Amino acid sequence: MKKYLLLLIPxxxxxxxxxxxxxxxxxxxxxxxxxxxxxxxxxxGKQNLVYTNNSPDTLYRVYYHLFNNAFQPNSCMDARIKSIxxxxxxxxxxxxVGDKEVKESRIAALKPNEIGFLKISNLKQDGIELKNKVVSxxxxxxxxxxxxxxxxxxxxxxxxxxxxxxxxxxxxNNKEGVELSMSQWYPKMAEYDxxxxxxxxxxxxxxxxxxxxxxxxxxxxKNYILGGSGYLQNGNQIGYNYQDTGxxxxxxxxxxxxxxxxxxxxxxxxxxAADKNYIHDKLVTNFGTTLHFLYxxxxxxxxxxxxxxxxxxxxxxxxxxxxxxxxxxxxSVIQGGDGGMEYAMCxxxxxxxxxxxxxxxxxxxxxHSWFQHILASNEAKNSWMDEGFTTWLENYGLNEIADKKQxxxxxxxxxxxxxxxxxxKEQPQTTHADRYDENRPYSIQAYSKGNIxxxxxxxxxxxxxxxxxxxxxxxxxxxxxxxxxxxxxxxxKVSGANLDWYLTDWTKTTNTIDYGIKTVExxxxxxxxxxxxxxxxxxxxxxxxTYEDGSQESFYIPQTLMRWTKENQNPGIKRTVLExxxxxxxxxxxxxxxxxxxxxxIDPSGFMADVNRENNVFKK
Length: 620
Ligand SMILES: [Zn+2]
Known about the structure:
Distance between the termini: 72 Å
Largest sheet: 8 strands, mixed
Helix content: 10-25%
Bound molecules: zinc ion
Shape: elongated
Number of strands: 33
Structural class: alpha+beta
CATH class of the domain at 389-508: Mainly Alpha
CATH architecture of the domain at 389-508: Orthogonal Bundle
Strand content: 25-35%
Number of helices: 11
Radius of gyration: 27 Å
CATH topology of the domain at 389-508: Neutral Protease, domain 2
């Protein structure tokens, strides 16, 4: 449709204004024509890719991801499933060996016509054939001519793919019967950024992609319905009322296939799904985004998917208001894949199960539109900025629309983090997502500890500053690749507090927070309190004192590293700001001009992730 073609004109709404001096990012413009054989699940494609080197470096090589190749016996992904202590239950089957239960890689059992593959031929740079080598899921390419800074080159290639039996995310015929979940399905240029090439083999974890525009033609059996990234350009040619144009063409009987033409402007991935039995509903919202829902025509799930639609709109409106406006005209919730996975302008999620499960996954995956798609951190290196911040927005949004609101909707994250610390298996958040010893510690640090980075940031700088930080972070870093320093620096600029110590201790170490009330002694009009710092990580402290008569007073001990004092978050209670506590001192003493006191609590909000809360409370 014409309306969408307009988006190809340089788009103000997609302009990036990353404030870091000299910030640059590479650019890709893909044109792909692909035809899918729905009998063999094999597909053929042609790709034309204009690659712009915005870096200050001359490039002599480039790398492509061939993600499909992971779904083959003996691939890196297979090896990882076999060697990790706690393999993902979706990728391993439980089998009995003697009287022991072991987990076997599902990939190891794939037959040749069930594996995934992506084969490349005819690879050229500006018409010149290129030397290249496939190493598992990575295509290594030597350039025919070096690519100078601030120049573009065109790569062209042909590809032959096979969609694997669904193991993880991408795949065919998943357990809910969705035929084609086409994520990470095409030769995808690896990202080159200020940290160099990011060309990791695919073991089913995180992604990092190049920003650009996708123009994709998909030719497929005419009985299939498609959804995915991008705006459909030819809704009036595909035989049903896809975009409510009111125009439905009758396809000639002998015509076997249709070509679906999508354009996805300014994204870093392109995903689609297809099924013969999709129901396709649309919800036109009053905030400028049309929500699409594609789900199987299965009587057991239809009501859940209908109920999901207004809630999805409510959530998106809350996300818009909390972080910043979703800039695309379309978002699609599609039944497919496994679990749930976020993609540009859409998500593929499992569609069966309870309504709460469906809503929760949708709330999570859609929140990734902000913290993954638009604020595209390198997920592999900083999974906590992707999964953690998404978990924060999901919890916040779900709580806002809940009938019964929780005081702390992030309580599960605190419990998860506490259990990880207790297990002794924590690794720092700077660990590359692929190289955690086990899956569980990875998950908890990414989702729970990453979420707590934000809830605790709110504890540090106060609610108003925190919400302003989220909005400014989005406004400043959208459509780029923000780094950990960027969220920290934004919070510093908004609040005026120094926070480098927080980023360092929380994300680069496994230091924990544990403050305790050591002694409380008093006589006459005076109570002397001695606090101790037991954990390595310093924090500012909010302390609530309740007196015998039930009246309350609060005390605030600034963390000197912050060079800053938080505003009283609870103006209903009188607050005294004490002298700062420098981290080098293991104890801190202060006086209360009243005796006796009934009880004293360090951090009554519970937002500080103190690993031992028992010693936070003194009771007379
Ligand atoms: Zn997620």
